[in-house]
Give the backbone structure.
Amino acid sequence: MLDFLARRILGALATLCFVITAVFFATRLSGNAMDYLLPPGTDAQTNAAMVQQFGLDQPLWVQFFRFVGGLLHGDMGLSFYERRPVVDIYAERLPNTLQLFAYALLISVIAGVPLGIVAALKRGTAMGSAIMALAFIGYATPNFVLAIIMILVFSLKLHWLPSSGSMTGLHFLMPALVLSALMLAEIIRFTRNAMLDVLGQDYIRTARAKGMPKFLVVGKHALRNAAIPVVTVIGLQVAGMVGRCVVIEAVFATKGIGDLVVFAAIGRDYPVLQFGVILIATLVVVTSVLIDLLYALIDPRVKVTAS
C-alpha cells in the first residue's frame, strides 16, 4: 500500500514539474505582454523601463529560475495590471471557485448515484428510460450552450435566478447545475451499468433466495461492489470539472479563478496566468492521487498488486 501511494505521489510531482516548466515557456511564446499593458504610442524609453521593472529583459533561463525560486518560497510575483501580489488576488477569488465546485460536486453525487440505481432497478420501464434520456441530454449538450439556455430561460424570461455575480447562494445555482451536468450524466450511466452487472451475479441471487430484504440486497451487497467503477468515474470527472470551471465562471461572471485565468490569458498577465494554470493542475493532480488512494482502499486487489 505504501509503495502504491509513493509511486502515485512521485508521478504527481513529475506531472507538476512538467506543468510548471511548460506554462512558463508557453506564456513567453504567446507574445510581448507590454503590447497589451501599455497604451498605443508609448515611447521606447517607457516601454524599456516597464520591461526592466518586471524583469522581462533578463534571459529566459534567468527568468525561469527566478520564477521557480519564487514558487518555492510562495512568491508568485506581482500582477502586471493590478500591481499587487498574485497570491492575494487568488486568495480573494478562490472561495467563490471552491463554493461553485462544492455545489456542483454535491449535486452530481447526491443526484447521480440514486438516479443510476433507479435506472438499473427500473430497466425497461418508462422511468428508467426517462432517467437515461436525461443523462444523454446532459452528456451531449456542451456546457456553454446549456449555460446560455439557462440564462435565457431562468434569468431573462422567468426572472427566477440572477444571471451573473456571486453575492448569494442563488448566484451559484445555475453555474453549479451547468457545471454538474456532464458529471451527473456520467455518474448515472456508470452507476446503472455497474449495478446491472452486479445484480446479475450469483451472490445477489443467493441473497434474494434467502429472503433478504431488497433494500439490503441493493444497499449492502450490490452498491458496495458497484462502487468501484463509480468512484473511478467520479475521480475522472472531478479532475475534468476543475478545467470546466474556467468556462462556466467566465460565462456567469462568478468572480472566481476561472474568469481570472481567462482575462489573464487575453491580457498576457504572465504571473496571474502562470499561477492559475499551476493551481488548476495541482487540484487535478491531487484529486487524481486521492481517487487512486480511495480506489485502493475499496478494491483489495489494488493493494495486492501495489504491495
About this structure: The mean pLDDT is 80. Residues 99 and 169 are 9 Å apart (CA to CA). The chain is about 80% helix and 0% strand. The two ends are 5 Å apart (CA to CA).
